[in-house]
Amino acid sequence: MDKILEKVKEYWKMIILVICGLIAGGIFYVLTNGQKPTTNLSVENLSPVSSQKSVSKFSGPNEKSVSKIMVDLKGAVTKPNVYQISSDERLVDLIKEAGGFTDQAHQKSINLSAKLKDEEVIYVPKIGESSSSENTDSPNNSVNSQISTTTSKININEADVTELQKLTGVGQKKAQDIIDFRTKNGDFKSLEDLGKVSGFGDKTLEKLKDELCFE
Questions:
Q1: pLDDT on residue 152
Q2: Which pLDDT band, with edges at 50, 70 and 90, does 108 fall under?
Q3: CB neighbours of 117 closer than 8 A, spacing ≥ 6?
Q4: How far is Cα 175 from Cα 189, in angstroms, rounded to an integer?
Q5: Pairwise CA distance, residues 114 & 95, whole Å
Q6: With contact defined as beta carbons under 8 Å apart, do 147 and 96 qualify?
Q7: Whole-model pTM above 0.70?
Q8: Which uninterrupted H or E stretch holds 27?
């Protein structure tokens, strides 16, 4: 034990220096590590944000915009009006938006799949109605021949007494005779069938052949 104490007394200065050096080194290590910025955490937090921005910029579909057009719908529909619709819609969509046809609408020759154009006028005629009922006075009206279903001829199988009187040489009595014959015997198929009605001879039929249609 005495030998150890003698050694300590002999080297005490060196031991103190070593201890002081260790303490100073520890303090320096703590100070320098405490000042270092923790950049790893911020980089990890920012990376997903940049990735999300990149995805949102390029991952969305490139959708084609659909334009709007104005179409003037007239005639035998529930709500005649000027409608704003999408350019990719068809006549059937426009008729539905207008509440559908009325009971008097002549639907046989209407192409419900027809495409529509901006500033177009569409007229749906009543049964037996002639083209004189269509309002096309304005030069800006654009009427598609596939959609405008009126005709200059009168449908003898659908026209009423008033419409039939527009035929050459046909008054109220003859018009009523036509309807009575049609009711009893069914639709007319040709001019020869009309010749079976009283008062319609060959000369009368010749005059009417360009004014009539049968379907």
A1: 67
A2: confident
A3: 69, 71, 142, 144
A4: 17
A5: 12
A6: no
A7: no
A8: helix 2-35
